[in-house]
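Annex B. Sample input.
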Amino acid sequence: MKVFLGTDHAGYNLKEKIKTWLADWGIDYDDVGAHEFNPDDDYPDFIVLAAKRVAENLNENKGIVLGHSGQGEAIAANKIKGIRAIVYYGGTKDIIILSRQHNNANVLSLGAAFLEEQEAKDAIKLWLNTPFSGDRRHIRRIKKIDNIS
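Annex B, continued. Sample output.
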């Protein structure tokens, strides 16, 4: 598995911490930007690049994108064919588990403004370690989503 990271200024500081966690966990990652804090940058520039990199190998790659709320970032990522991005900005972790088990989500979009550091760390670890169930009903539903043009 390779994880692609992307964010604008709103998630920059948290992204830098995520890189350390991924390295500590022995997970290969690629930071596609932002590579410096710039309050005038635009999240689509980095999020779309991360999503495209995930889409190059949907069976192996995952993405973690960040922004203020995570909402716009998920919208941008979901424009790329094959991407199933979900948003997490706190609360029950059940949504993280279901996103992997039922939807085989391949991009996790984090609302950096709403997450404490430990909460983000726990969410990422849970998301990366939760497998897709492979249930026929979920496969059928994902195929229907993939066929939407």
